[in-house]
TrEMBL record, chain A:
Name under which the protein is recorded: IBH1-like N-terminal domain-containing protein
Organism: Thlaspi arvense (Field penny-cress)
TM segment ranges: none
Signal sequence region: none
Pfam families: IBH1_N (PF26576)
GO cellular component: nucleus
Biased composition (Low complexity): 81-94
Subcellular location: Nucleus
Principal location: nucleus
Automatic annotation (TrEMBL), chain B:
Keyword DNA-binding found: yes
PROSITE patterns registered for this protein in UniProt: BHLH
Subcellular location: Nucleus
UniProt-recorded name of the protein: BHLH domain-containing protein
CDD domains for this protein: bHLH_AtBPE_like
Domain BHLH: residue ranges: 208-258
């Protein structure tokens, strides 16, 4: 029965091919994350499961599920090099700075835009090593994957509560 | 055009049916496929987007920059491999160089397509059209830098790669341009070529700087605006925003909020982790179902309706959802935003639904 379900899930009909790809991403993501979490559960005592490790697994699952994008490679590099949380936690503090900065005059607009582009680059894993055009494309994919990830995480959390 | 996704990637650009997630999916392979017949047709009506030029074989693209043409020239009948080969040796045109890198990735097809799309305003005409077996002479059209900027008439052609050809080419050029000066003058567009080796044939708009550097810069900026437009569709609530800075702000905020949400959820997951008893299939089925709810109004596909009819044990509260728009009140605002953006494929087979019929909750509540 289980296998049936899995097989049937693979047959996804969609109006647009995009949807099947989103479904594929979600499938991959969950299939990466859930076993990893289970493994975490088994290997460590519950007291040791910090948010850090969970975040690490979450990010790892994201990176593994989206390997066709450049940012996922960067993310993987970051994750494998250190077990620390990725820039996502840091960016939240930086984010407020963007909002609070007073609006510059029109003459400075170009610079302002560049500033924001740089800010955006920091948000994207590996964004700083890309040129702007590439970064903008990757950001789109990153956003999409983040959305999918959010939904997947929500359903996991909901499932266990 | 753009209907098929040549690469199975998520398309966050919805402009043309998600022809590919990772890239500006303005043009995809089908468009490229059209290019061959286009080139082989004897009439070289310029592909134009706006600007009062005669219209084109290409439907207007999402880019609305009249007068900008980034159109790779290649001999008619040449196949796709030819084109990518010719596009690969990109030179110092700023945009070109980056495109070259782009092409280096495995998204070749789309990039090529995009280049074509980007070059919609190709008011080709005169020179090439002048009916003297222009298509046969098309290889000579792959030229680069013009002689001098003082030559306003579109003699500017790009050098293909062979410098020695330049002399003979120029003579041809002059011949053609003499023939069709009137047509050129009618069209009041200046020509200015992108520098050196790239085959992106670019024109300066009337009254704009024709410096090669600024031209490349303009191309680059066009591309960036292009992508920003697509991003605009992706980020919720950005449809009314005009202006790069505000748009970028929105995007930044959105990405940050998404990341924070992920963080929050992972924190929550960490707290509940010890009691975790996850059934992957259940989650997957639920996930797909959630998306199905969202898609109900948009998809009238047979599998879906078939599904609807065969699941008796789905609770009645959920049934209406398949017929009506998902009600925002049932979800958090962010979720509804996500759901409106997020389209997933769904499972057609009804039997999968029964796997979680014991699970009474079919909508996410957080």
């Amino acid at each position: 029965m289980e296998r049936q379900i899995i097989n049937k899930k693979k047959r996804v009909f969609s109006v647009e091919p995009n949807k099947s790809h989103s479904a594929a991403f979600t499938r991959k993501y969950i299939s990466h994350l859930v076993p990893a979490l289970k493994k975490l559960n088994m290997n460590k005592n519950s007291s040791q499961i910090t948010q850090q490790t969970v975040k690490h697994e979450v990010d790892m699952a994201l990176a593994l599920s989206a390997q066709e994008f450049a940012w996922s490679r960067f993310l993987l590099q970051k994750l494998s090099s250190s077990k620390n949380p990725t820039t996502t936690t840091n960016s939240s503090s930086k984010g407020t700075q963007v909002l609070e900065r007073p609006d510059k005059e029109g003459g400075d607009e170009e610079g302002e835009i560049e500033e924001k582009l740089r800010e955006l680059q920091k948000l994207l894993p590996g964004g700083e090593e890309m040129n702007v055009e590439e970064m903008l494309s990757e950001i789109g994919d990153y956003i999409k994957c983040l959305e999918l990830q959010t939904i997947a995480l929500k359903s996991i959390v909901q499932d266990t509560t | 055009m753009g209907g098929e996704s040549n690469e199975g990637e998520m398309g966050f650009k919805h402009g043309d049916d998600e022809s590919g997630i990772s890239r500006v999916g303005i043009t995809s392979m089908p468009l490229y496929g059209k290019a061959d017949p286009f080139f082989s047709s004897a009439d070289w009506d310029p592909v134009v987007n706006g600007g009062g030029f005669s219209s084109s074989h290409y439907p207007p693209m999402a880019m609305d920059n009249p007068g900008m043409s980034c159109f790779p020239h290649y001999p008619p009948g040449s196949g796709y491999p030819d084109m990518t080969a010719s596009l690969l040796p990109f030179g110092d045109c700023g945009g070109g160089g980056q495109i070259g890198r782009f092409l280096g990735s495995d998204k070749k097809g789309e990039n090529v397509g995009r280049l074509i799309g980007a070059g919609e305003t190709h008011h080709e005409d005169h020179r090439q059209v002048s009916g003297d077996g222009v298509l046969g002479a098309s290889p000579s059209r792959k030229r680069r830098q013009p002689e001098a900027e003082s030559q306003r008439n579109k003699k500017a052609v790009e050098e293909y790669q062979e410098e020695p050809q330049r002399g003979s080419d120029q003579s041809q050029k002059k011949h053609k341009s003499d023939q069709s000066k009137e047509t050129m003058n009618k069209e009041s567009s200046q020509s200015e070529e992108a520098p050196k080796e790239n085959y992106i044939h670019m024109r300066a708009r009337r009254g704009q700087a024709t410096n090669s550097h600024s031209l490349a810069e303009r191309v680059r900026r066009e591309k960036i605006s292009e992508r920003m437009r697509l991003l605009q569709e992706l980020v919720p609530g950005c449809n009314k925003i005009t202006g790069k800075a505000v748009m970028l702000d929105e995007i930044i905020n959105y990405v940050q909020s998404l990341q924070q949400q992920v963080e929050f959820l992972s924190m929550k997951l960490a707290t509940v982790n010890p009691e975790i008893n996850i059934d992957i299939d259940r989650i997957l089925a639920k996930d797909l179902l959630q998306s199905r709810d969202r898609n109900a109004p948009t998809l009238g596909l047979n599998p879906f309706t078939g599904f609807q009819g065969t699941i008796p044990n789905v609770s009645t509260t959920t049934n209406p959802q398949y017929n009506t728009l998902p009600q925002a009140s049932k979800y958090t605002t962010l979720e509804s935003d996500l759901q409106s953006l997020y389209q997933m494929g769904f499972v057609s087979n009804p039997s999968t639904m029964s796997s979680f019929s014991p699970n009474g909750r079919l909508k996410p509540e957080l």
